[in-house]
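#dry-run=false #mode=assembly
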Amino acid sequence: GAVVSQHPSRVICKSGTSVKIECRSLDFQATTMFWYRQFPKQSLMLMATSNEGSKATYEQGVEKDKFLINHASLTLSTLTVTSAHPEDSSFYICSASEPMNTEAFFGQGTRLTVV
Amino acid sequence: KQEVTQIPAALSVPEGENLVLNCSFTDSAIYNLQWFRQDPGKGLTSLLLIQSSQREQTSGRLNASLDKSSGRSTLYIAASQPGDSATYLCAVSSTGFQKLVFGTGTRLLVSP
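#status=ok
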């Protein structure tokens, strides 16, 4: 199947700083990528849809000014958590699909801890 | 709004048992359903994808069925092994894009 790479896998940052997470499709081009968040012992919740060359679409309740998404190329989407707070500590994971393929492939995820 | 529920939330079985994980969804107008495996602290591994027009998919010891009209899917694992221990998630897509709604997950523990 297609390969999606996410970096970093773990990050610890101080409150008030910003953290950037990268999601890359390694062997295919993805016009659309998705960002999910998973709190401990809960399931994954969609945060936003990242659209190449245009603005991201955010789910209800997700602050677009706090979670900045940039999809500058067909193989890279980035999620920046701005002015991070301890409550932003979570597992963030991205997904992408090959064109004409309905199967979703996920990155390895990023464990963010804000101290 | 689509809601996905998985039963049981946790399951502990001895090695060798056959087992069934259940997934139900409230809106039957789905595009496809996907089963994933998640190991602790790790990302998701896709196990099986069932299109809305299909009834089941098989891969090795895994078999997933889909009854769209009743809003249900099951994942059957034959001859379970300790290496099968993980959390199993089902997710549905209501559009052609992979915008998924995930279930609550079933934590499986297979003891040697």
